[in-house]
Specification:
The chain is α/β, with parallel strands linked by helices. α3 packs across α4 and α4 packs parallel to α6. The chain folds into two domains: 146 residues, Rossmann fold, CATH 3.40.50.1000; 76 residues, Putative phosphatase, domain 2 (DNA polymerase, domain 1), CATH 1.10.150.240. The relative contact order is 0.18. A six-stranded parallel sheet has the order 3-2-1-4-5-6, sandwiched between helices. The protein starts with a strand and ends in an 11-residue tail after the last helix. The protein is globular and about 60 Å long. Bound molecules: xylulose-1,5-bisphosphate (XBP) and magnesium ion.
Length: 241
């Protein structure tokens, strides 16, 4: 198998973002006059549902008793999510959520080695754009040929829709790609699309079930090990003399 493309998940993979999301949800609840507060233990359960809007609805339906839904419930949720996204992108712009160790180097090596790059994520487009501008460079989004994100597909992870969407836009078969994920939902999504998937653990997902992953890494601090296990061509980095 000659790897032609790497498809990256975003949250938990490119960066350890979920606690930033959690804090941003809580800021939005306060700003909107709600006494809701998602601590890390509750958020761990809520992460079962991907998509911020879907997660809010899941919380209301499964964890809130006696909440009277406002007339225009859809707009209520969308507004809450817009406020949350504003807080989250502000956190990113303050540089408070860096890319994970090894990620920028992997992306740079892949670009230099002619490996095509794409993103398949559940998170919102503005979150992806801001993370890449902060973590890579002002036009960091342009480093990725295809960015599949947010509501672009009807069914979010663990459904395979977003990965099928990305493969179709790349014009590549699943067999020519590898995916990098951090969660059970993400792994189910990429595997259902037929893509060999490597997992990087993080605080929220480390105890999830990663059966089917080609390999599981604590992180990408040791890129040499990652290159050996994935079969990616080792980068010929210019050794400064
Ligand atoms: C993770 C998600 C997202 C984020 C929150 O996405 O499920 O919903 O938790 O972002 P992935 P939004 O791991 O696929 O990158 O509030 O913008 O959905
Ligand atoms: Mg993820």
């Amino acid at each position: 198998m000659t790897i032609k493309a790497i498809i990256f998940d975003v949250d938990g993979t490119l960066a350890d973002t979920e606690d930033g999301h959690r804090q941003s949800f809580n800021k939005a609840f306060t700003e909107c006059g709600l006494d809701w507060n998602w601590d890390a233990a509750l958020y761990d359960q809520l992460l079962k549902v991907t998509g911020g809007k879907e997660r809010i609805k899941y919380y209301i339906e499964s964890f809130l008793t006696g909440f009277t839904q406002p007339g225009d419930f859809e707009e209520f949720v969308k507004h809450l999510h817009r406020v949350k996204t504003a807080h989250y992108t502000a956190m990113l712009r303050e540089g408070r959520i860096p890319l994970r160790p090894g990620i920028k180097q992997l992306i740079t090596d892949a670009r230099n080695g002619g490996i095509r790059l794409a993103i398949a994520t559940t998170t919102s487009p503005e979150n992806v754009a801001t993370l890449l501008q902060q973590g890579l460079c002002a036009d960091g989004e342009s480093w990725f040929e295809v960015i599949g994100c947010g509501d672009i597909v009807p069914h979010k992870k663990p459904a395979p829709d977003i990965y099928f969407w990305v493969l179709e836009k790349m014009g590549l078969p699943a067999a020519d790609c590898i995916a990098l994920e951090d969660s059970e939902n993400g792994l189910h999504s990429s595997l259902a699309a037929g893509i060999k998937t490597f997992v990087i653990l993080n605080r929220y997902t480390r105890n999830q079930n990663f059966s089917g992953a080609a390999a599981v890494f604590d992180d990408l601090a040791d890129l040499g090990n990652f290159y050996r296990l994935t079969g990616l061509p080792l980068p010929k980095r210019q050794i400064s003399v």
